[in-house]
């Protein structure tokens, strides 16, 4: 087990944009690290802050939330609500001493396969630098 | 009588005037509202002892008058004590009333049916430590105390023999007694969000202890006070400019003191994750903090209570994460969560670490107005 440590990243993708973006990335064969576990949601607005905190407590090293670009939401303004919520969430995560780089929000449309791949790449690199999350059950115990 | 006007008033009934904290105006107003049919019920504090009182909903004017002079309610979310659709008049500290506003914002409480009398508050004292403090710091028998007062930075207890015992609050708080922690950094001292804001700050010297300064804040406040005056329960005279000035001065002094305490209490922490883990480690998941919270509107199956499983011990202490997040925009820093915590976690202060700077950044004081908070601006 001398392999390099790979972070576990939970990624929430909106059904209409960023999930399509991940498809585009795959079809176009953009290279990206296999660190993410994608959870498809119907809208980034569905991502309750509880999900994010729970992911951290269950051992995720990072959580990425992605949705449609502002103005493109399939449900009119779901992603704007995500933005508001994210502001709260970021504060709590930061104040708790968890590095802010572990939580990211990005707007990715279905056609932006390259953006999707580079976002995952960048996030993985950032989180790799930070090392395992301090909230991991095995770290805590 | 108009909105925005200030009066000095007192109860006409001599017995009430004597027993009441400052002239018995508040109980007399409540009793009048009940008697004249302005409200169906009144939420008053039923006195158990000088240090203890319990909020009770009553429709008996006698019981209302009997509540004169009550101090220090037990921790209770007042809005949860008031049934829907019943016209009620209630008394509360600024934080109690702010809690009601927050519940009204979340459609859990009907402010239209509620007449609110707010009491100026420089901080409240926890009953048991206070008895101890009186014994240790003042050297008097706590059962002898009949009245207490905060004036000019002094905490003054009056004993049965009429003698006043004063000590500097700073001195008491240095010694580990004094006001509850959340009161020390509280930012609302005069409840201008209530219909009537009452208190003894600004009462002229000759009437001190026998009259109350009232600010009429809303139309409902006008109704309350005119009803009481017309019914002959209460007498009022317009407050002089000097009175208003003194009231402002006292408020400012209290707020300055709060600002000082804030700096002392909210010192930046180095290893925050460790700090919170240590602070929350003893949480036993009893949910008492959620039960008593005046701004928590989720009800039975709230996310914060369903989140941690008792099988997973590694994240017990982070049950509070959800609460911190949920209440960040609405916390009024009343401190009741700290009061009820069986594990003696300073929940309120931990919460305030998030909520106060966040609210401040947006220029928002939770629970003062019935309008959408600035956090949820979705164009």
Q: What are the main properties of this structure?
A:
heterodimer; A: 141 residues; alpha/beta; Rossmann fold; four-stranded parallel sheet; 16% strand; globular; B: 379 residues; Aspartate Aminotransferase, domain 2; Nuclear Transport Factor 2, Chain: A; 3 domains; eight-stranded mixed sheet; three-stranded antiparallel sheet; 15 helices; oxidoreductase activity, acting on CH or CH2 groups, with an iron-sulfur protein as acceptor (chain B)
Write a brief structural summary.
Chain A has 141 residues and is of the alpha/beta class.
In words, what does this structure look like?
- The complex is a heterodimer of chains A (141) and B (379).
- Chain A is of the alpha/beta class and 141 residues long.
- Chain A has one domain: Rossmann fold (3-Layer(aba) Sandwich), CATH 3.40.50.
- Chain A is 42% helix and 16% strand.
- A 4-stranded parallel beta sheet of chain A has the order 2-1-3-4, sandwiched between helices.
- In chain A, helix 1 (18-27) links the parallel strand 1 (9-14) and strand 2.
- Chain B has 3 domains: 3-122 and 181-256, Aspartate Aminotransferase, domain 2; 125-177, Roll (Nuclear Transport Factor 2, Chain: A); 270-360, no CATH class.
- In chain B, strands 3-2-4-5-9-10-1-11 form an 8-stranded mixed beta sheet. A 3-stranded antiparallel beta sheet of chain B has the order 6-7-8.
- Chain B is globular.
- The mean pLDDT of chain B is 87.
- The interface between A and B is medium-sized, with 24 and 28 residues.
- Chain A: Keywords: Iron, Iron-sulfur, Metal-binding, Oxidoreductase.
